[in-house]
Write a structure and sequence with these properties.
The chain is mainly beta. It has one helix at residues 69-76, and strands spanning 13-15, 21-25, 31-35, 39-43, 51-56, 59-66, 80-84, 100-108, 112-115, 118-121.
């Protein structure tokens, strides 16, 4: 059996110079578009390298995937234009070097108050 030829890793998301909005498509039920103006922050924990948490307005967008470093960079630079979940790629060894999303979930941030583009979470339980 011959080894697979080496190829440049592929990013399964689109970037653009100064996009006005970003689109998240879960590949099943929802495709949502948000203006970058409503972006609050993205967090990516070292302990959980397969999930990026993105706060946009009063929503939490959970993006799970593989090799998410390039996607996180696109979020940091606000160049991400669109991303679609592609769960089929997770089981294909040919895509081990690629950056792709396997699932996207949209959640309302509980007890969040949006003020001037910032989200404040009520952690006191009151």
């Amino acid at each position: 059996m011959e080894p697979a030829p080496l190829r440049k890793p592929r990013n399964y998301f689109d970037t653009s110079t100064r996009p006005v909005h970003v689109t998240f498509d879960d590949g099943k039920h929802k495709r949502r578009n948000f203006p970058w103006l409503h972006y609050v922050e993205a967090s990516w924990d070292y302990a959980d390298r397969d999930v990026i948490r993105i706060f946009i307005s009063d929503l939490l967008v959970l993006v799970a995937g593989h090799n998410l470093g390039a996607l996180f960079s696109a979020l940091e630079d606000q160049t991400l234009a669109r991303v679609r979940a592609q769960p089929d790629l997770a089981n294909d060894r040919e895509h081990d070097a690629d950056s792709f999303v396997t699932s996207i979930r949209f959640l309302k941030v509980p007890d969040a108050v949006a003020r001037n583009g910032q989200i404040e979470l009520n952690l006191d339980g009151d």
